[in-house]
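Issue 218. Parser rejects a valid record. Input:
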Amino acid sequence: MGFFGSLNSNAYVIGHPTSANRNWHIYVASKDSKSLPLCKDQTSAVTLEMCMTGLDKMKAGVFYKKSADYSAAEMTKMSGINEIMPNHVICDFDFDPCGYSMNGIDGTALSTVHVTPEDGFSYASYEAMGFDCGEVKLKGLVQRVLKCFGPRDFSVAVTCHGGSGVGVQWWATECADVEGYMCDSVVRQELPGGGCLVYITFHEVKEAKERTPAKMMNMPCWKDVAEEEEMVLGLGGGGAGGGMMGRPYISSL
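Output the parser choked on:
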């Protein structure tokens, strides 16, 4: 309290009611309710964060120690992490028997990766900040990250401090369609000082060319389930929720 008691703080939990385990927690501190969060460059501070689960087994296998000579530098190159932000100077580290982390830097731009590759609970995270969104397009950045890990499910949180966050809103609208994935939900949260955060969740679809809108895809599935229940249990085809995708929600603390 001696250090932060004088600050105005806000906490949010963002997510979707049908995905109880996929929430994003935000804490924002500022000098007063109208001022921007405490960061050095208030006009261009953009942070992109990705959480990925169910990694492709072949891609996750890169992060296992194959021999005493198999280094973190080789993991960085074989996975393609060095191509996410090609200009970043990378400090990487491998774990025994598996696992990986790295920090990258290029001027004011920073990035970091952490990987837990074990089958059954594989996970990877990626974070980047301080980069020029005019040069590094968010859509391409997300696609390069996905190419390294091939996750089954992932979420993206983009935080923009300063201005109206128009760039972040545009990205969320334009890039909600990621090849090979279906967008589950998009939530936008206003932040103090005119900033905002956009949180998007995705799941993998086997054939990208055969994707259909979420409502069109889910409704027949619920019908099939209802028919099965009626045949096996002799019950009606009721059930909550239908196949419709619920609206995103925001709860604040």
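Fixed in the parser; the record now loads. Residues 170 and 241 are 30 Å apart (CA to CA).
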